[in-house]
Amino acid sequence: YERIKTKDDRKDELAHLEYTFNDTMKLLERNYKKQEQFVSDASHELKTPLTVIESYASLVNRRGISDPKIIQEATQAILEESVRMRDMIEQMLQLARYDEEMVISRQTIELLPVINQTLRSMKQAYHRKFNLIIDPDFETITYKTDEQKLKQLLFIFLDNARKYSEDEIDMHMTETTNLIKIAITDRGIGIPKDAIPHVFDRFYRVDEARNRKTGGTGLGLSLAKEIAKGLQIKLVIESDIDAGTTVTLELPKI
Ligand code: ADP
């Protein structure tokens, strides 16, 4: 038995439909604006290294034959900017892929060997000192996650710690009843308090001039945010200017 719909019922249904429609349109519009902004930021960001490359190439063209020092300086700059452009394009493609769909394949892994591997490759690549400080029962701890994505996440934070500091970098692993915490601490330039909420925005860099020599892209932490969301990891940043930064990854025990 179905109640016969009254005029008021129909009106309600119509109002509900209209509401849903408006909501969907707003969401689509917001996504479209975000995409549009991303494309416009991306072209701007890619133009900057291109301009540098162009001007150095033209300098070599004009005066390089008579001045080997110019060739040296120009090739160095061209190389650096090309690497930056390549990194940027790779990260942009990855972000676009993650925006579409993030495929996560979880497996139970031993955490310590994964962390050690990541640290070893960082040490080898950059000849920096990374200290690992762990609770004794951490030696054999296992966790169900996507190993490659967890490694990528750790790499992004270790790479930033390295880029924005000169001293040793510490990695602490601790455990509470509900969480496994991995904290990465550097004693570097730090992040101003008012900038902390923005560091996960795409292309955001605290101070372009201050950051220029590190050759970053402003995309690392936005990738980290997406990966952490996919793995249900909470990220906490604490930082003091000129004292250093600690990023803590909070892995829920599922
Ligand atoms: P980038 O490629 O520029 O490092 P990220 O998205 O990884 O881009 O980081 C965004 C900005 O946040 C950086 O440009 C830098 O200004 C700041 N930042 C990130 N990590 C650190 C850190 N460990 N110490 C100081 N500043 C940092």
Automatic annotation (TrEMBL):
This is histidine kinase. Its EC number is 2.7.13.3. Keywords: ATP-binding, Cell membrane, Kinase, Membrane, Nucleotide-binding, Phosphoprotein, Transferase, Transmembrane, Transmembrane helix, Two-component regulatory system. It comes from Paenisporosarcina antarctica. GO terms for cellular component: plasma membrane. Its main location: membrane. Residues 1-33 form the HAMP domain. It is found in: Cell membrane. Residues 41-254 form the Histidine kinase domain. The chain holds residues 197 to 450 of 450 of the full protein. It is a multi-pass membrane protein. The keyword ATP-binding applies. One of its GO terms (molecular function) is phosphorelay sensor kinase activity. It catalyses: ATP + protein L-histidine = ADP + protein N-phospho-L-histidine.
